[in-house]
Give the backbone structure.
Amino acid sequence: MFLRRFTQLQIGLFLYGLSIALMVRAELGLNPWSVFHQGLSDVTGVSMGLVVNGVGLLVLLLWIPLRQKPGIGTVCNVLLIGTVADLCLKVLPPLEGLWLKSVFLIVAIVLNALATGAYIGAGLGPGPRDGITTGLLRVTKWEVRWIRTGVEATVLALGWLMGGTVGVGTVLFVLSTGPLLQIFLPMFTREKAEPARISAAPSAP
């Protein structure tokens, strides 16, 4: 049972990294956290994948006052998603033509939701950024929609100020991720995988 869940986790994280690379190549807008990661990458000169992993590690430090406990899935999330994104960006060439970029964008958004459903549904621990939402939810007792909106609006604004790509893809991601997760999360949620219930719509890895 654990092996099956662990395998599902790894596949989900790999596909998540691939979805980030596809959205970057589409150049039509990224999800809020990826806007932040790309902007920070532009400012520092560090590859986007390393920024994804590094930010994930730093975000874990915020779990301490929020009394969040990482799982093996949390650790794998920090190590794998950014690494896969970097590898895929090296393989995927820049795209020409709006139609091709649009196809990449749509595939990336659907793949991102599928990947999120897979790694959250494995029930081996949330991603570091998801843990911020759930931790604040438990500590503040505020409504999850306000916490999620506040966190994502903050990282989106910071990323945009640093040069991250905001566009139609950003809007489509925000509007579609919830409905898509309603489809994919139940498909991948394993029996007794309690962590899969902590957030109906995770924000990012």
Remarks:
- The first helix runs from residue 2 to 26.
- Residues 2-197 form one domain.
- The mean pLDDT is 88.
- The chain has one domain: 2-197.
